[in-house]
Amino acid sequence: MRQPDYSEFLSKTARFIARLFGWRIEGQLPDAKKFVVLGAPHTTNWDFALFLLVSLSFRTKFIVTLKDEWYRFPLKATLRWLGVLPINRRQRTNVVDTMIEEFAKHDQLAFLVTPEGTRQYTDYWKTGFYYIALGAGVPIVLGYGDYQRKITGIGPAIMPSGDIDADMALIRNFYASITPKH
Questions:
Q1: Domain parsing of the chain, residue ranges
Q2: Strands 140-146 and 151-158
Q3: In the predicted model, what is the mean pLDDT of the chain?
Q4: Collapsing DSSP states into helix, strand and coil, what is residue 87?
Q5: pTM here?
Q6: What is the pLDDT of residue 26?
Q7: 32-81, pLDDT tens digit by residue?
């Protein structure tokens, strides 16, 4: 059983804020201590706010990566509290191997990935999230923000089988009915 990262008060506050703006948070996290969460579709910076509400609502800190240019005063302390890891994109680093190592170091870890790799709509997703989950032996949890229905939350979890084409077909099928902001 996962230990909560946030208080029940923050969870209820997040759900209240979502309702205040006309959104509903739904779903539930898998019964696993470690997993990769997809944050998709990702077409606007508002998606960060939605997934922060989901994270707080489910009392689970979603670790995310962000360009290291943002990771400085006055934002650094807040970003650290939110679970943001700085990534230097000017250097060639193997984020997949780094995150697999992070999963090995922690008893519980939820790593949020935006598979588009950009805030623009794209038909092609980067596959690093898949190889992180496969290498760490953890499920991929399908998180979403549906702007048409104003519902955000957690969908099913998929354990990567090693057959990326088959697994990606399942993932694409889930997201086919989710409407992005742009």
A1: 8-156+168-175
A2: antiparallel
A3: 89
A4: strand
A5: 0.88
A6: 97
A7: 999 999 988 776 777 788 999 999 999 999 998 887 888 888 888 888 88
DSSP result, 8-41? HHHHHHHHHHHHHTT-EEE----S-SEEEEEEE-
Of the candidates 47, 5, 42, 59, which has an alpha carbon nearest to the alpha carbon of residue 23? 47
What's the CATH number of domain 8-156+168-175, 3.60.21, 3.40.50, 1.10.4100, 1.10.3470?
3.40.50
CA 169 to each of CA 32, 103, 144: distance values in angstroms, whole numbers, following the listed order: 23, 25, 17
Q: Cβ(7)–Cβ(141) under 8 Å?
A: no
* Backbone CA torsion sign across 52, 53, 58, 59: positive
Q: According to the model, what pLDDT value does residue 119 have? A: 54
Angle between helices 95-105 and 128-136 (to 10 degrees): 30
∠ CA 170-176-182, nearest 5°, is 135
**pLDDT tens string 112-124:** 998 876 555 667 7
Residue 68 CA to residue 34 CA, distance in Å, equals 25
Six-digit token pair at 17?
């804020």
Q: Provide the pLDDT for residue 17.
A: 97
Output the six-digit token pair for 92. 């060639």
Q: Which residues contact 64 (CB under 8 A, 6 or more apart)?
A: 82, 83, 84, 85, 111, 112, 113
CA angle 24, 152, 168 (to 5 degrees): 150
